[in-house]
Design a protein that fits this description.
- The protein has helices at 2-15, 17-45, 82-91, 127-131, 144-149, 158-165, 207-215, 234-248, 264-307, 309-317, 322-352, 365-392, 395-400, and strands at 56-61, 80-81, 96-108, 117-123, 136-139, 153-156, 174-177, 180-188, 203-204, 220-221, 223-227, 259-263.
- It has 402 residues and is of the alpha+beta class.
- It folds into 2 domains: 2-47 and 269-400, no CATH class; 53-264, no CATH class.
- A 6-stranded mixed β-barrel has the order 3-4-9-6-8-7.
- A hairpin with a 2-residue loop joins strand 7 and strand 8.
- The protein starts with a helix and ends with a helix.
- The model has no long low-confidence stretch (mean pLDDT 75).
Length: 402
């Protein structure tokens, strides 16, 4: 029976494509706004490494000039000096430690039919891969000896390896990066986006190698991090970080720190708190968009009822019951809402998948399903009044309508 009303609704909507398109677009805008909103909230509150976040901690160090600095205020020029990095890496804080240095340079493909292209990469220590659970499809991370001697070795992401070698295993092959030939020792499994960057478009080389062969001497590093043995030993490891930094910076016991040490769990908690602050605002925006879409559907359905008054009268004169008329118009409303929901979801997923230099959003399947279901429910809710008005018409007054 519902299939009959569905086909009837399709025929009715095709009679006035302009009104149908207007209703669909109105709902699609609301659904797209809802999907985009939920994507932003998901990105702001997600945990890329939930099994280890509570054990990771990172010192933020201000190496700016002391002129104009007020003791106790938050660091302003957050960079980690070479001296800080060396002392922290040798200090023994936590079970694993790494420094990171960002690098970007041209790569020379091994095949003549592929043009050179610019590639971004990270220069960490070996511990980076274990700290952040970097999975390998082929090969493995370089060794501690490679770190110590600055070996010309590299780990490639699946995306980059695919551009250079296709589906073949590249481990053991040589690749030229900024004029230096590197031996590939590992291939990372495709990981996708973590919400802030594409993890499949990277190369990794030992930090000592990058400093010696590519960038030369460096004054500061992007970041340095450490991982405690377990969550219970995190305060002890962070205390050791404080001791090393105070000693390195020549701070007296009474001097306030000119750095910050925070753990990843605290950073995630701050992100979730910020997400909650935005949640109400973004939720209101999405709700208003869907409400406007629903009101638009109701108004246009009322116009449709007016235009089809004589049709309703004929159907009633031929024996159609009140429930038949209500079902007919609700089926049309659900059809409109479904079309608007599908288009809105596609637009929202497209907007939510847009990449920038700093963020690679992830569209949650739950947000897609929820937004579509809400769209259908809005169609039913706001279509109920026009349907009841159509069903309330008597055959006599409907047939008399000009």
């Amino acid at each position: 029976m519902f299939g009959y009303y569905f086909r009837l609704g399709v025929r009715s909507l095709r009679r006035n494509p302009a009104l149908t398109a207007l209703m669909v677009v109105t709902l699609a805008v609301g659904v797209a706004a809802s999907v985009s909103t939920l994507t932003i909230l998901h990105m702001m509150s997600s945990d890329p490494i939930p099994q280890k976040s509570s054990r990771l901690f990172v010192p933020l160090i201000d190496n700016g000039p002391v002129e104009g600095y007020t003791p106790g205020e938050d660091p302003d020029d957050i960079q980690i000096s070479y001296k800080d990095a060396v002392n922290l890496l040798k200090g023994g804080q936590g079970v694993r430690r790494t420094a990171l240095y960002g690098v970007s340079a041209p790569i020379q493909p091994p095949r003549a039919d592929i043009q050179p292209f610019n590639l971004s990469g990270l220069a960490p220590t070996r511990d980076f891969f274990a700290m952040f659970d970097v999975p390998f499809l082929h090969g493995q991370a370089w060794t501690e000896q490679d770190d110590a001697r600055g070996a010309d070795v590299v780990v490639l992401s699946r995306e980059i390896a695919g551009k250079l070698y296709g589906d073949a295993d590249p481990v053991g092959q040589m690749v030229e990066f900024n004029g230096v030939r590197f031996r590939i020792v590992g291939l990372q499994v495709r990981k996708g986006s973590n919400g802030f960057q594409d993890q499949d478009d990277f190369m990794y080389a030992p930090i000592t190698t990058v400093i010696d062969n590519i960038v030369g001497n460096v004054d500061s590093f992007t970041i340095i991090g450490a991982r405690a043995v377990n969550k219970d030993l995190l305060p002890q490891a962070m205390g050791e970080i404080h001791r090393v930094l105070r000693q390195t910076h020549g701070l007296k016991p009474s001097d306030p720190p000119d750095y910050i040490v925070f753990n990843a769990a605290a950073l995630l908690a701050a992100g979730k708190a910020a997400a909650k602050q935005f949640q109400l605002l973004l939720g209101v925006v999405a709700a208003i968009s869907l409400l406007i879409g629903g009101i638009g559907v109701m108004n246009i359905m009322l116009v449709t009822v007016t235009e089809r008054t004589r049709e309703i009268g004929i159907r009633k004169a031929l024996g159609a019951q009140r429930s038949d008329i209500i079902t007919q118009f609700l089926a049309e409303a659900m059809l409109l809402a479904s079309l608007g929901g599908v288009i809105g979801v596609l637009v929202g997923v497209g907007l939510g998948s847009l990449k920038s230099a700093t963020m690679q959003p992830i569209v949650s399947p739950g947000s897609v399903v929820m937004s579509f279901c809400v769209s259908v429910l809005i169609g039913i809710f706001f279509g109920a009044y026009p349907a009841s008005r159509a069903a309330a018409l008597t055959p006599m007054e409907a047939l008399r309508y000009e």
